[in-house]
Design a protein that fits this description.
By secondary structure, this protein is α+β, with helices and mostly antiparallel strands. The chain has six helices and ten strands, in the order H-E-H-E-E-E-E-E-E-E-H-H-H-H-E-E. Strands 1-6-7-5 form a four-stranded antiparallel sheet. Strands 2-3-4-8 form a four-stranded antiparallel sheet.
Length: about 270
């Protein structure tokens, strides 16, 4: 599943080609995504200029004068630009035609993504976004906040860190990496971690995500950004996908377990 750096990469890839352009048509070939796509989507979009392309958590927000087009890529969704004569493939579910003749195409083999129209300016109050935690790269995500939210929480710190009500966008890959860099065991109870250790963890979360965004995200299967290029952060992974291999810190074999049904790789010696 694309995580925050991948979605940010897509946002940055498509924004220069969308901002200032006007939607001229919408073609819906299959409306059966996570939620049915509004078949009247063209009525909401056509003739409107794209004012900005934003991101909230893993949602892309395309702002128009009368509302927002909200897109979630799900597990296998992709957005990319094609020419008008580009053949349509099996899983190409939506096209947004622009006034310059280009087409923004959405393809999604598993159809777990979402395309939602939100009328008006209050997109933050929409049910998909209203209860989300702070952005991990914002000032609102800080050691004091995380420490306070963690008190009396007995869940593993990895699950706590991946809770979108606590902080958005710290998916499985980056939670593994940040906890390793911070020296914190993913199995430790969130409420047992000190403010000092949360200070280091917040720093590592921001550092890992910053680096991943700079390198275009992580390509594990078929992810590519909005510019059609793959992400290269996989080459920098310290623990994720390396279960059974030596820890680069102490050379002890990395352990691989499952926490909340998610693959978790860590070093029992370096992470306490």
């Amino acid at each position: 599943m694309p995580e925050l750096p991948e979605v940010e990469t897509v946002k940055r890839g498509i924004a220069p080609h969308l901002i200032g352009r006007v939607f001229s048509d919408v073609i819906i070939r299959d409306h059966r995504l996570r939620w049915p796509v509004d078949l009247a989507l063209a009525n909401h979009l056509c003739g409107q200029e794209v004012l900005s392309v934003e991101r909230r958590a893993k949602y892309l927000l395309i702002r128009l004068p009368t509302g927002y087009l909200v897109i979630h890529l799900g597990m296998s969704g992709r957005l990319y630009f094609v020419d008008a004569n580009t053949p349509v493939a099996k899983h190409d579910h939506l096209d947004w035609r622009l006034d310059d003749g280009k087409i923004l195409r959405y393809t999604d083999p598993r159809r777990f993504g979402a395309v939602v129209w939100v009328e008006g300016e209050n997109v933050a109050g929409h049910k998909l976004l209203a209860k989300l935690g702070p952005e991990p790269l914002s000032e609102d995500f800080n050691p004091a906040y995380l420490f306070k939210r963690s008190r009396k929480r007995i869940v593993p710190i990895k699950s706590f860190l991946m809770d979108a009500h606590v902080v958005v966008g710290v998916g499985n890959i980056y939670a593994n990496e940040a906890l390793y860099m911070a020296g914190i065991s993913p199995t430790r109870e969130a409420g047992s971690i000190s403010l000092a250790r949360y200070t280091r963890l917040v720093d590592e979360v921001k550092s890992v995500l910053d680096k991943a965004i700079t390198q275009g995200g992580t390509t594990l299967k078929d992810f590519v950004g909005g510019d059609g290029k793959p992400g290269y952060f996989k080459q920098e992974l310290q623990v994720y996908g390396r279960g059974g291999q030596p820890c680069w810190g102490c050379m002890k074999e990395l352990s691989e377990i499952r926490i909340a049904q998610r693959t978790t790789v860590f070093c029992r010696r370096c992470q306490k």
